[in-house]
Amino acid sequence: MSATHASNEEIIGRADINDIEAILAVSNTDVDEVEHIVKDNADAIFTWDYSLARPQLRKLYEKAKVGQWNATTDLPWDQEVDLEKVVSSDQAALQSGLTPDHYVGTVVEKWGKQEWLAFGIDQRRWTLSQFLHGEQGALLCTAKIVETVPWYDAKLYASTQVVDEARHVEVFARYLDEKLGGGFQVNAHLRMLLDDIIEDSRWDMTYLGMQVMVEGLALAAFGFLHQMTEEPLLKQLLRYVMSDEARHVAFGVLSLKEVYDGMTDAEMKDRQEFAFEAAIRMRDRFLSQEVWEKHGVNPRDVVPLVLKDPTRDIFQQMLFSKIVPNCKKLGLLDRNDQWLRRRFEEMNVIQFEDWEDTGSEYIKFELDAQQSDEREPQPVAGD
Ligand SMILES: [Fe+2]
Ligand SMILES: [Fe+2]
Fold first, then answer.
1. What's the 165 CA to ligand 1 centre distance in angstroms?
2. Where are the domains of the chain?
3. Residue 196: what pLDDT?
4. Does residue 208 surpass a pLDDT of 50?
5. CA 169–ligand 1 middle distance (angstroms)
6. How many CB atoms lie within 10 A of CB 217?
7. CA of 309 to the centre of ligand 1 (A)
8. 91-97+106-365 under CATH 2.30.30.30, yes or no
9. Banded model confidence at residue 1, pLDDT cuts 50, 70, 90
10. Half-sphere exposure of 364 (CA within 13 A, CB side)
C-alpha cells in the first residue's frame, strides 16, 4: 500500500496550480529589508570514519579542486556593457510569439519600442537579481550540508561548493552593480522556497531542495541565457558558473540516489511533496510581477496575456529539463502510485523524463571541454 499525499491546498496553499490571482497575491512587501533570519533546525554531525566510502563523491571533490577559477582575474570586467544594445538584440533573438494586438485594452497597448526596451532592461536586472539571491541561498545551504551530512566524502565535496557559491554571489552582485546599475529585491516565491529548504531539519531535504530542484533549474536557465545573449562578459560569466553548477547537481543526484533507494513509501511521500512544492514555487516566481509593477502595470491585467505566449511556454518548460530526469533517476517520479509523475504531467513538463540526467553530465560542462555548438567568447585585450 502506498502513502497518501497531502492536497495542493496543504502543500502550496492553493487548490489550482494555475490560479494566477493566488500567485500574484504573494509579494515581497518588505523591500527595504536588509537582514532576513531563518532558523536552520539541524544537528551538526561529526564523523570519525575517514575512509574512502564513496569514490564517486571523492572524484567530484578532485574535479572541484582543479575546476576553481578566480572571478576577479578570469573574467573580462573591463568589457563595456551597452545595456540598451544588449537588451534590444536579446529581445529580438527571443522573438515573442505575441503581437501588440494581444495587449489591446491594457496599459501596455500604448507601449512603443522605448517602453518595451525599458521594461526589458529591468527584466534583465530582475532576472539576474533572482539568480544572485538564489546563489546566496546555495551558499547558506551548502555551508549547512557541510555540517549536517553524515558522510566524510560528502563533507569534503560540499566544502568546495561553499567556495563555488561564494564566487557565484560575487560575480552576479558585481555584474549587477557595475554593469546594470543595481538590482531588485528577492522575489517572495523564491524567498519562501529558500526559507523552506533552510528550515527543514532533515539533511537530505537541503540536498533535494537546493542541489536537485533550485540548481537543476538554474543550470537550465543559465544555459538558456548563455546561448541567447551576445554580451561577452555575461556569456563568459555564465559559462564559468555553469561549469560549477553541473558538478553541484551531480553531487545532489549521486548522494540522494543512495539514500532514496532505501526509503519507505511514507518517507518518499514527503520528498515527493517537497519536490512538487519547490517546482511550483520556482514556476510562480517567473511571472516577474515586480517588474510589471515598477512600470506602472497591474500584473493581473497583463500576466494572463503573457502566459499565452508560445515562446514563453517553451522556455518555461525547458526550465524543468534537468529537474525531471533527475527526479526520475532518484525514484521520485514513480513511487507511491506515480504521484510526482502526475504532478509533472499537470505542469506539462513530464516530456523531459528520459533526457540525460545530471549524474555524470558535469564532465561536458568542464571549462576545458569542447562545446561544439558554441563559440567560446574571447578574452578582451589586456586580459
Ligand atoms: Fe551557484
Ligand atoms: Fe550551485
1. 5
2. 91-97+106-365
3. 96
4. yes
5. 7
6. 24
7. 29
8. no
9. low
10. 13
